[in-house]
Design goal:
Elements: H1 5-8, H2 34-37, H3 41-55, H4 58-62, H5 64-68, E1 76-78, H6 91-95, H7 104-128, H8 140-165, H9 189-206, H10 223-238, E2 241-242, E3 251-252, E4 263-265, H11 268-288, H12 297-305, E5 316-320, E6 342-343, E7 347-348, E8 355-357, H13 359-364, H14 371-375, E9 376-377, E10 379-383, E11 389-393, E12 401-403, H15 413-420, E13 432-436, H16 437-452, H17 466-476, H18 483-491, H19 498-510, H20 516-522, H21 526-542, E14 549-554, E15 562-563, E16 583-586, H22 599-607, H23 610-613, E17 615-618, E18 624-627, H24 641-645
Antiparallel strand pairs: 1-8, 2-4, 3-4, 5-13, 6-7, 8-12, 9-12, 10-11, 14-15, 14-16, 17-18
Helix pairs in contact: 3-7, 3-8, 7-8, 8-9, 8-10, 9-10, 10-11, 10-16, 11-16, 16-17, 16-19, 17-18, 17-19
């Protein structure tokens, strides 16, 4: 029996359980009766593997959640500009907050995620009732790890669902044969998170740290991820959220608040409690010593592209395992572009347009911040007329920079061999990283700053201040010769601007990873930051920040690779002349706000996130204004029409969406 049956309209199709890894080994042995399965460590492991098999699906953790759910923010955009931005039954329109319940992916996502929850519920129930959980049993430790794993995976999936849809049905037991727990109504998301946080506390006691037990790598939920997810959930629970109706005693936002569907957060007393829980949870990770920052930001992403687990620093607390040749859209649907039809050097072309970055993000980085050129892909790979692969500058694409964190030039020889022989899409195998240690440090800094300011301490903290945690993340991004400059920046922050610095660091560190949107939501900054990005683009276009033409040198005699350090992003340096460079290309300054025919300014810019912030009007003197949408701050998505029609009246849409 599948979870919530017709309410969830679970598909009968195979949930992509191809053998991406041992996690996806869901053989018939795992389908034994519950009593048999959970009285065997081996068969219990097979049941746990089925949870991972559920997640490896386009409508879950292959494509939609890690790539599409996180757009649009002030720096990450879906590839939907102009008329594409208002297509309500396509991911491009949905990414611009122009969604319709008829969009087919909504039901697929809902079904897939509740299938995962159903399997987790069955595992939790089966393990808790297993004779192997008895004290003194030789298999108890293994069974406890499996229980902790199921608790964390269920919490992670529910957490992702409520951040996307808001209130959803919350069921924590397997479906009953009499269907008495099938047609469930929505549960308030605060109640869901309160329950999940208790589960995560239990899981943290049951799970080992990364590689503490042989074979228990970060491709499993670890103790570190249980604590980190608990802290992340506590911060979300304390933050702002748009509500179906006002909650008594909650604080209502004065900015970006809808009169019918208010944006609210808990009382100051409750927020204090939740921020303490968050700080203490992140402190457990920091104090453990099992997780650290890789000293090199670039090397961390090289390892991810190489499909190599970082077992030295364990910067990634949990990675959902994929499999080369089997599955994995990161690098293909999101990443540095290989132009069609492919190249002689790198093989078959990818399609990395679903998630893109902005010129304002690129220029917001400090010139010496090494994260900029790892994150923002200002080049693409293409063959010339002679079949030679060359790096090409992408030109005037202020809203269409690809995410360089996934880069064919960093991928493994096995991937290259596969891609050279490919004639269609093949799984890139890159794991989905659900939490990095840099996030832990930034979240810890946020919680500590809320409780004690930049330099204070609280009971149960990690022994470092908010400023020290921020400094770890920020200075890592700079070479040794520029670290003093980076540290001076952090040390110069005041109590008044420290939170703003955290908001910026979140962007610089995590852009392209589909994390920022949900943090901006809980800060009630999403709409404000989108408006700010649009104004900033026009300002930078007008004040000469952007160059009409950039000049650069090649790094090799054959002129196939660009020396990125030579690109004149800030103008030709004093004492140099354009004739001293090997080549040039158009750049973001090629647009002209004084001409209404300019597509970037008058078509593309106004279309971005139009469903969230309403109509954007740009005038030829560079002024920009906004007309509010019908529902203010509506970042949540509707339930699918088919989900509602199958619910026997238990579910309906809100936030102004039709059923």
């Amino acid at each position: 029996m599948n979870k919530i049956l017709s309410v969830l309209t679970l598909s009968a199709g195979l949930m992509c359980v191809t053998s991406c890894s041992d996690f996806l080994d869901t053989s018939s042995d795992s389908n034994k009766t519950s009593n048999d399965a959970y009285n065997s460590v081996y068969f219990t492991g097979q049941r746990i593997n089925a949870i991972y098999g559920d997640m490896i699906n386009d409508r879950a953790y292959i494509q939609d959640i890690p790539i599409k759910w996180g757009s649009n923010t002030d720096c990450e955009l879906v590839d939907g500009l102009g008329s594409n931005a208002t297509n309500t039954t396509h991911y491009r329109g949905v990414g611009n907050y122009n969604a319709d319940p008829g969009y087919s992916a909504f039901s697929g996502e809902w079904n897939t995620l509740y299938k995962t929850i159903e399997d987790a519920n069955e595992c939790i129930d089966g393990i808790n009732n297993s004779s192997l959980m008895a004290d003194g049993n030789a298999s108890q430790k293994s069974m406890q790890r499996y229980l902790g794993e199921a608790y964390v995976l269920r919490a992670m999936v529910y957490f992702d669902m409520i951040r996307y849809w808001g209130d959803v049905p919350f069921v924590t037991e397997p479906s009953k044969s009499d269907l008495s727990n099938v047609y469930s109504k929505k549960t308030d998301r605060d109640e869901i998170m309160d329950n999940l946080m208790e589960d995560l506390k239990k899981a943290a006691d049951l799970l080992p740290w990364a590689d503490q037990v042989s074979g228990y790598t970060t491709e499993h939920p670890t103790k570190g991820y249980a604590y980190a997810l608990l802290g992340q959930m506590a911060l979300t629970r304390a933050g702002w959220a748009i509500r179906e109706q006002a909650k008594e005693g909650y604080e209502t936002a004065t900015e970006d608040n809808d009169p019918t569907y208010p944006t609210q957060r808990p009382t100051a007393e409750k927020r204090e409690e939740l921020y303490k829980l968050a700080a203490q949870s992140f402190a457990q990770v920091i104090k453990s010593g099992f997780h650290k920052l890789n000293p090199s930001f670039a090397n961390e992403w090289y390892l991810i592209n190489q499909l190599t687990l970082d077992q030295t620093y364990h910067e990634n607390l949990f990675e959902i395992p994929m499999g080369l040749g089997a599955t994995g859209e990161l690098g293909y649907t999101c990443g540095l572009r290989i132009a069609k039809p492919g190249t002689s050097t790198y093989g078959f072309n990818n399609s990395p347009g679903a998630l893109q970055l902005t010129s304002t993000l690129f220029y917001s980085y400090n010139k010496n911040d090494e994260r900029r050129d790892v994150t923002c892909a200002t080049i693409q790979l293409a063959d010339d007329d002679n079949g030679v692969t060359r790096e090409e500058m992408v030109g005037n694409t202020p809203f269409s920079l690809c995410v360089g964190k996934w880069d064919p030039r960093m991928m493994s020889d096995k991937w290259l061999q596969q891609n050279k022989g490919a004639s269609g899409k093949a799984g890139y195998g890159i794991n989905v990283v659900k939490m990095r240690y840099s996030q832990v440090l930034l979240y810890y800094a946020e919680a500590m700053n809320y409780l004690a300011g930049p330099d204070g301490h609280v009971e149960g903290d990690a022994g470092i201040t908010a400023r020290e945690a921020l400094a770890e993340v920020h200075t890592r991004a700079f070479s040794n010769e520029n670290k003093a400059e980076a540290l001076n920046y952090v040390n110069g922050l005041t109590a008044d601007n420290f939170f703003d610095a955290l908001v910026n660091e979140n962007k610089w560190e995590l852009a392209g990873e589909c994390v920022r949107k949900f943090d901006l939501i809980r800060w009630n900054l999403l709409s404000a930051k989108v408006r700010e990005f649009k104004k900033e683009y026009l300002k930078e276009l007008m004040d000469g920040t952007y160059q009409e033409t950039v000049w650069f040198n090649y790094a090799d005699a054959a002129k196939t690779k660009i020396d990125m350090s030579s690109v004149t992003w800030y103008g030709i340096p004093d004492g140099k002349h354009s004739s001293e460079y090997d080549a040039s290309a158009d750049s973001f300054g090629k647009s002209d706000y004084t001409k209404t025919s300019d597509k970037q300014v008058y078509t593309n810019l106004p279309s971005i996130s139009s469903g969230l912030i309403g109509t954007t009007t740009v005038t030829t003197d560079g002024e920009v204004s906004f007309t509010a949408p019908a529902v203010v701050n509506r970042y949540l998505m509707p339930l699918a029409s088919t989900t509602i029609s199958s619910s026997q009246g238990s579910l309906s849409n809100s936030y102004g969406y039709n059923n």
